[in-house]
Design a protein that fits this description.
Layout: E1 22-26, H1 33-56, E2 60-63, H2 79-86, E3 95-99, H3 109-114, E4 119-124, H4 131-145, E5 150-154, H5 160-172, E6 182-184, H6 192-208, E7 210-215, H7 229-232, E8 237-242, H8 244-251, H9 256-268, E9 272-273, H10 285-305, E10 309-312, H11 326-332, H12 363-379, E11 385-396, E12 399-405, E13 423-424, E14 446-456, E15 459-469, H13 474-483, E16 490-495, H14 500-506, E17 511-517, H15 520-536, E18 540-544
Parallel strand pairs: 1-2, 1-3, 3-4, 4-5, 7-8, 7-10, 9-13, 15-18
Antiparallel strand pairs: 6-18, 11-12, 11-17, 12-16, 14-15, 14-17, 15-16
């Protein structure tokens, strides 16, 4: 059953009565005005569908905050605004948090952490704007905070799954989902060879200690992405809290010649850049060269502070003074990447190694990536990892396929064709006014181990499973880009033994970690080794799906 639960009213018996006649609705949005304005139409349409579904069940929806004609949207667009709105919501009232867009969880988290009434998070099943991503982030944050909630999702809010769940919530204040695909580590027969390798790995990992470099903590209100130090340090990982301003300052010490050398290296490897002349709408060479300076600066700072993994927050702060970090992130995660040299000694840094980068300073993904990188090197498998958004999913043929997509952090080694299969396109202006190149491409087919580290019940947890990245016809891939974000790289993932709704019910994050293995047999061997290593490190491991 779903362990998210739901808050109970102080009044016993059926909720559908006076307690559930009026359902309050809030909508958390972006911090960026341009994104809120662009995405408002989709949110408005989704809210009308949700309200109609609630009204058909005999209740009514009361929006807790009005559309703002001056701002041209109706989102809660700051923590300040969220706190103001929650002051007027009865603390025991039933509450729906409706999301058709990416949202900043901290806009609503203060209100939700003290709300006593039943909470239902709802998202539309659409790839257009990342509403599913936003809701999963909110769910993960509520789980970490210990807030009870229920959750639902739907394409049109008239299907049996949604209506049945809504009726259950209106009646009891809770919705439970099937999570029978999840098994605890102790309940699975893990091969002795994997346990032995995991124990050895954990002893050495904890004894040697590692440094996690964090360029400003807490990106986009992602409370679920912050690991408390008291949970992280027993694993053997310690935070080096850095500043994005230091990264920008270090960029200014990188020579034009060094930046040009990185750019020339990428083009020599076959990567293409879709360049134009208009800085406001096109990707320009000047933007790419600044990203090359950021790449060099990041490597040099990581070396200076002894960082084993780093995360650049970027989405806020640097977006106003520099191009996007996406190109940087993908290169860092790749073993084969442009060389970077120490500015004093001239020695090449991190030779022959990826420097695992966790997008949007998601520390849970950073810990996962670091453990995976080290273990895959021991197994002599390609160690590149990708942090993806769980963006959307659809039936392709007779399979349900997850459309994983992220603006940054995808290493070219994961793309079909490598660097030659990658093209740099400009980040959408509504998110990144100063542009910057992505690493666009389609992930190669192959066996995959997926995972997610998350915080629940004040301890570190990890869900882990097997999957297959598949090839799809080009016209379907193009349609997937059309229905999501066309500038970003895709992975088409089939999970083993997990339905769409089981995964959604269980997953506690907007992000998912993926890594390739040479074969299905190798993936299974690596899965058990990684699970055993994490278990030895004190992380609560659950196997998901068919293993």
């Amino acid at each position: 059953m779903d362990d998210s639960g739901g808050r109970s009213s102080a009044v016993g018996g059926l909720f559908l009565g006076e307690n559930m006649k009026t359902i309050y609705l809030v909508a958390s949005g972006d911090l960026r005005l341009s994104a809120n304005q662009m995405c408002w139409a989709a949110q408005d349409a989704m809210e009308k569908q949700v309200s109609a579904a609630v009204e058909r069940e005999g209740a009514q929806v009361k929006r807790a905050h009005a559309y703002d004609p001056a701002l041209k949207h109706g989102f809660l667009d700051s923590q300040k605004r969220g706190i103001q709105v929650f002051r007027a919501i009865p603390p025991d009232a039933p509450l729906i948090v409706a999301e058709a867009v990416w949202q900043y969880t901290h806009h609503v988290l203060p209100g939700l952490m003290t709300h006593r009434g039943p909470i239902l998070t709802v998202a539309n099943w659409s790839g257009q704007w990342p509403g599913l991503v936003g809701m999963l982030n909110l769910n993960g944050s509520l789980t970490k905070a210990g807030v009870k909630y229920s959750t639902l999702w739907s394409e049109n809010f008239d299907d049996a799954f949604f209506i049945t769940g809504l009726r259950k919530w209106l009646k009891t204040g809770k919705v439970a989902h099937d999570t029978s695909h999840v098994r605890a580590f102790a309940d699975v027969r893990v091969p002795s060879s994997a346990k032995k390798l995991g124990a050895k790995f954990a002893r050495e990992f904890r004894a040697n200690k590692a440094i996690m470099g964090i360029f400003d903590e807490g990106c986009m209100g992602m409370y679920n992405a912050i690991i408390p130090d008291e949970l992280l340090s027993p694993v053997g990982v310690f935070k080096e809290r850095l500043s994005q301003s230091a990264l920008f300052a270090k960029m200014r010490t990188v020579s034009d010649a060094d930046a040009r050398a990185v750019y020339d290296w990428l083009r020599a490897q076959g990567m293409k850049f879709d360049l134009g002349a208009n800085e406001k709408t096109d990707l320009t060479e000047a933007q790419v060269l600044l990203q090359c300076k950021m790449y060099i600066a990041a490597v040099r700072i990581a070396h200076e502070f002894g960082c084993d993994t780093i995360g650049i927050q970027y989405q806020q702060g640097l977006k106003d003074i520099a191009p996007a970090s996406d190109l940087v992130e993908g290169l860092l995660n790749n073993v084969d990447r442009p060389p970077v040299y120490d500015e004093s000694t001239g020695a090449e840094l991190f030779v022959g190694h990826a420097l695992p980068h966790f997008n949007e300073v998601d520390e849970c993904a950073g810990l996962d990536a670091l453990i995976t990188n080290r273990l895959w090197n021991i197994l002599k498998f390609a160690p590149e990892t990708t942090l993806h958004d769980v963006r959307w999913g659809r039936k392709i043929g007779d399979q349900f396929v997850w459309i994983l997509e992220i603006s940054g952090a995808v290493p070219p080694a994961h793309l079909d064709g490598g660097y030659a299969g990658a093209i740099g396109e400009r980040q959408p202006a509504m998110y990144f006014p100063l542009g910057g190149s992505t690493i666009k491409g389609i992930s190669k087919p192959g066996a995959v181990v997926w995972s997610r580290v998350f915080v629940a019940n004040n301890r570190l947890n990890c869900d882990i499973g097997l999957g297959e990245a598949i090839s799809v016809p080009q016209e379907i891939a193009e349609d997937n880009w059309k229905q999501t974000t066309a500038q970003w790289p895709l992975m088409h993932l089939v999970m083993r033994g997990i339905t769409r709704d089981q995964f959604m019910a269980r997953h506690k994050a907007n992000h998912i970690q993926v890594v390739y293995a040479p074969s299905e047999a190798d993936a299974r061997r690596a899965l058990f080794a990684k699970a055993a290593a994490m278990n030895e490190l004190g992380i609560n491991v659950s196997f998901c799906g068919k293993i």
